[in-house]
């Protein structure tokens, strides 16, 4: 029985957040065994949609309303949107464990820690919503987020390139601005949560960067060339600026990569369409 991968699969399919959290703890225990099997005897299945609560209703991104942060409704909408991102990030991390076999043991330890920290982010944001007389699931949410997990399920290099280095790294770019806006309207409780998320997301992007580089090195590939090729192949994902250069440096991007990112963003602007 492929215990590690069975647990990860069960966690991925689990629709209850509390159930996911318990299974994540079980995977932590399994990874404490230095002899755990990383090969797997059964090929991973394609998961078209990871397990999640029945709410929120999922809609195209154009139907997710944006509101000004000066109102409680506006702050609730922002927190709800970020909570939805964090719950998806839990599933992304679990899928990185379940799907890609034969990686070094540290790879699986890294991603279960990411799953656990993303789950904590979701809990903090859910509690903040309750403090604001709301709850996760009250508002519609972006329905296309899992699409990139499906699109990159064929190769660990593609997953590491396009989820941590593009989708999650985008959070490093935009979160500081959200923090300043929230501070400007006096919502220091939410500021504190977002500051913690930003700090830990830097480390999550760093993990993705390291494993992307590890795979490229073992395949004899130039990381910059491989990254550009993957962006071209997955033409439905947009590389957007401006970039938070210091946060990206802290997350393991090199200055050469940052120069390349600026160039790629210019090259791809207007050619790539966001996931819908």
Radius of gyration: 18 Å
Structural class: mainly alpha
* Portion in beta strands: under 5%
Instruction: Provide the spatial order of strands within the biggest beta sheet.
Output: 1-2
Helical segment count? 10
| Gap from first CA to last CA | 38 Å
| Helix and strand sequence | HHEHHEHHHHHH
> How does the overall form come out from the CA principal axes?
globular
Uncertain spans:
272-276
Main β sheet profile: 2 strands, parallel
Number of domains: 2
* Structure summary, number of beta strands: 2
Average pLDDT confidence is 91
* Helix share bin: 55-70%
Set out the fold topology.
Layout (H helix, E strand, L loop, with lengths): L2 H11 L3 H15 L26 E2 L12 H28 L5 H27 L9 E2 L4 H5 L4 H29 L3 H31 L4 H11 L11 H6 L4 H14 L8
Parallel strand pairs: 1-2
Helix pairs in contact: 1-2, 1-3, 2-4, 3-4, 3-6, 4-7, 6-7
Describe this structure in words.
- The chain is an all-alpha fold and 276 residues long.
- The chain contains ten helices and two strands, in the order ααβααβαααααα.
- The chain has helices at 3-13, 17-31, 72-99, 105-131, 147-151, 156-184, 188-218, 223-233, 245-250, 255-268, and strands spanning 58-59, 141-142.
- A two-stranded parallel sheet has the order 1-2.
- The longest helix is centred in the last third of the chain and has 31 residues, at 188-218.
- The model is unreliable at 272-276 (pLDDT under 50).
């Amino acid at each position: 029985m492929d215990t590690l991968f069975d647990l990860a699969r069960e966690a991925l399919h689990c629709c209850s957040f509390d159930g996911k959290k318990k299974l994540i703890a079980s995977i932590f225990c399994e990874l404490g065994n230095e002899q755990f099997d990383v090969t797997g005897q059964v090929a991973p299945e394609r998961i078209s949609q990871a397990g999640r609560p029945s709410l929120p209703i999922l809609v195209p991104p154009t139907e997710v309303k944006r509101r000004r942060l000066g109102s409680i409704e506006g702050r609730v909408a922002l927190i709800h949107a970020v909570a939805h991102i964090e719950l998806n990030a839990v599933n992304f991390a679990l899928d990185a464990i379940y799907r890609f076999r034969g990686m070094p043991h540290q790879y699986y330890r890294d991603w279960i820690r990411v799953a656990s920290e993303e789950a904590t982010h979701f809990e903090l944001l859910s509690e903040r919503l309750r403090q604001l007389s709301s709850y996760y699931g009250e508002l519609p949410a972006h329905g296309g987020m899992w699409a990139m997990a499906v699109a990159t399920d064929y190769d660990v290099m593609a997953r590491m390139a396009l989820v941590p280095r593009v989708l999650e790294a985008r959070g490093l770019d935009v979160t500081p601005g959200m923090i300043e806006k929230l501070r400007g309207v006096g919502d220091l409780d939410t500021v504190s949560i977002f500051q913690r998320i930003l700090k830990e997301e830097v480390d999550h992007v760093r993990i993705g960067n390291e494993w992307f580089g590890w795979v490229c090195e073992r395949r004899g590939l130039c990381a910059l060339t491989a990254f550009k090729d993957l962006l071209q192949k997955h033409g439905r994902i947009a590389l957007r600026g401006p970039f938070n250069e210091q946060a990206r440096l802290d997350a393991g991007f090199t200055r050469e990569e940052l120069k390349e990112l600026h160039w790629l963003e210019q090259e791809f602007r207007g050619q790539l369409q966001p996931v819908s």
